[in-house]
Write a structure and sequence with these properties.
By secondary structure, this protein is mainly alpha-helical. It has one domain: MetI-like fold (Orthogonal Bundle), CATH 1.10.3720. It has helices spanning about 1-30, 35-40, 55-60, 70-100, 105-115, 120-135, 140-150, 155-165, 170-175, 180-190, 195-210, 215-220, 225-235, 245-265, 265-275.
């Protein structure tokens, strides 16, 4: 028993130290928002000489008269629909592969999974040419359309694996009660898939929220910029970069991700670790 307690304490200490080390960059970034450039680059002190909130006030004003309120709104105008469309479309595709038999099912699934190996650089130019021919450049359609059409094989594969762990007897009992395939999917399977759906939504939220390359490709108007582009714009707009403003806005931009992760942590862990129903 004593050995178990000692091992437990040691494990807790190691986890605590690892957690502090992982959180240190965020702590440093937060404290840097109160420092001047001279303090950031000329001193090793963690704490600032004074807590000056001008970095947040001036940083929020943005550049060229466009505030970070606009950038946050633009970001969520992309992220929220993309997450909803992705979860809805990928779960439907996964339902088809996991529950139905149809000609060419295995080759189609292999083809879908093989697209995971395609580097983004290979499809970047043809995808841009396609969206440009549709007149979608400088709109948010290049983000919405792939999400609506379920073109994210990673999420399809993850949901298929989760759904295969759910007993097919649940579907059969729903059919006996008079439900159709879609009703059984919505009323029976969707409630059981919450952990996997939350995990897919959380992944997509983080990836879309942090995406820099795709907004850079498809958006050419500063009024439609997302947060990732705004942070880069704030660096390019001035010859002498006030790093306290950049750090302040970078810290503020991370707050939604931190809140989302900790509020959905339970479902996120279950979705990754669970492959079916618990007994």
């Amino acid at each position: 028993m004593k050995k178990n307690k000692i091992g437990h304490y040691i494990a807790n200490i190691i986890i605590t130290v690892a957690g502090v080390l992982m959180l240190f960059p965020i702590l440093w970034m937060f404290l840097a928002t109160f420092k001047t450039n001279e303090e950031i680059f000329g001193s090793l002190k963690l704490l600032p000489n004074s807590f000056d909130f001008s970095g947040y006030i001036e940083g929020w004003k943005g550049t060229a008269g466009i505030t970070y309120s606009t950038y946050f709104i633009n970001t969520f105008l992309i992220v929220i629909p993309v997450v909803i469309f992705t979860v809805a479309s990928c779960s439907l595709v996964a339902y088809g592969f996991a529950r139905f038999k149809f000609p060419g099912k295995k080759p189609l699934f292999m083809l879908l999974i093989s697209t995971l190996m395609l580097p983004n650089a290979v499809i970047m130019i043809p995808r841009y040419a396609l969206f440009n021919s549709f007149g979608w450049v400088n709109t948010y359609m290049p983000f919405y359309a792939p999400a609506v059409l379920g073109t994210y094989p990673f999420f399809v594969f993850m949901l298929v694996q989760f759904m295969r762990g759910l007993p097919k007897e649940l579907d059969e009992s729903a059919y006996i009660d008079g439900c159709g395939s879609f009703q059984a999917f919505v009323q029976i399977l969707i409630p059981l898939m919450k952990p996997a759906l939350f995990s897919a939504g959380l992944f997509q939220f983080i990836w879309t929220y942090n995406d820099y390359l795709n907004p850079l490709l498809y958006i050419n108007s500063a009024k439609k910029y997302t947060i990732s582009l705004a942070l880069k714009l704030s660096i390019d707009a001035e010859s002498v970069i006030p790093w306290n403003k950049v750090m302040a806005m970078a810290f503020v931009s991370n707050i939604p991700l931190i809140i989302l992760f900790f509020s959905a942590q339970k479902y996120f862990v279950e979705g990754i670790a669970t492959q079916g129903l618990k007994g």
